[in-house]
Amino acid sequence: MGIPHQLPYIIDGDVKLAQSSVILRYLGEKHGLGGKGAKEQAEIAMAEAAIKDLRTAFGCIAYSPNYEKERPEFMPKYEKGIEDIANYLGNKKWLMGHSITYVDFLLYENLCVFQIFEPSTFKKHPNLKQYVERFEALSKIKAYLASKRFISWPLNGWSASFGGGDAPPK
């Protein structure tokens, strides 16, 4: 593997990869969820970058020892990022339209985190709530969420000021 001692990683036959976004893209493409044609693949990459930008900014305050102070300063950026995602989704079933792609998995995971971070997210953007409900209604996702393998907490590493520790906020 190119980078030793790096998590997560995947070994799939002779393919050895690290980096979560690379693994997600590889598995998506392997299973036909990588988009059709150059235009859709570019749109998927654009959506992936926007989601990751928001999650990275969120991660900076989630791990900050000054989380409570920095949260209010972060909220305008968060609200703009969520609004952009909600507007891009619009009334579509999935981010790219009628076909689910690997970036839908990334968005779903992040929306679950963001809903805990800011419970009003779905009230302000009902299309995001409907999107999460559609995703959770997929038979294999529904079975996974009901299984013992599903871990709902922690959202971040144990050292995070938000999303770490033993229990979710009340």
Automatic annotation (TrEMBL):
Pfam families: GST_C_3. Its EC number is 2.5.1.18. The keyword Transferase applies. It is an enzyme of class 2 (transferase). GO terms for biological process: glutathione metabolic process. Residues 1-35 form the GST N-terminal domain. It catalyses: RX + glutathione = an S-substituted glutathione + a halide anion + H(+). Residues 37-155 form the GST C-terminal domain. Conjugation of reduced glutathione to a wide number of exogenous and endogenous hydrophobic electrophiles. Homodimer. This is glutathione transferase.
